User: Fold this.
Amino acid sequence: MSEFEIDWARERRTGIAEAVLCDGKSAAQIEAILASAGERPLLLTRLRPEAHASLSDKARHDLDYDPSSATAFHGRPATGLLPGPGIVCAGTSDLAIAREAARSLAFAGWQAPIIADVGVAGLWRLMARLDEIRGFSVVIVVAGMEGALFSVLSGLVDAPVIAVPTSIGYGVATGGRAALTGALASCAPGLVTVNIDNGFGAACAAVRILKKFGEARDPGAHP
Assistant:
């Protein structure tokens, strides 16, 4: 019996292709999953550089790998992307998670620019980019420490805002719990939150929102 069961019908059922979390998997297990995929699209997340380096030459050759986000595409090039969400990142320390979200969106066919280093410690930086941010139909906000950017930005834009707390921080902010609690306790109505460091999950939520927006504009559209 196989060690894994890949959900190849996921994209047809939910509009989001199958993804594989590589943390905790051996090189042999990852290569077996890739071999079973054939030409079918597969997104690999949390494929750390050392894990990627441990794969065979053929496996590495077949992947579109991005070490900054620890993601890899199998069987689907990131081309012909549609304009998608905006990703707003509090600090450069949060960029790895922001890039995970951006790459997950690219795999799903959406272009998602990242506006980085606009945290509330220098609020003028955020205000200088506010008109640009207001142009996005969905906004993913990535922040660690106390997560204040979630509430501030959610109170300034009319688009759905998805908060991604990150594990960046120290002291009481260690592990991202302060940022997660800040997002959940926000008084900004309509702010939604995913788990700590879950850039992939935020991307999936944004894809579902975007697809429904498209259906609302064109009742004859299909996922």
Q: What stands out?
A: The longest strand covers residues 139-143. Residues 219-223 have pLDDT under 50 and may be disordered. Residues 82-215 form a domain with the Rossmann fold fold (CATH 3.40.50.1970). Residues 199-217 form the longest helix (19 residues).
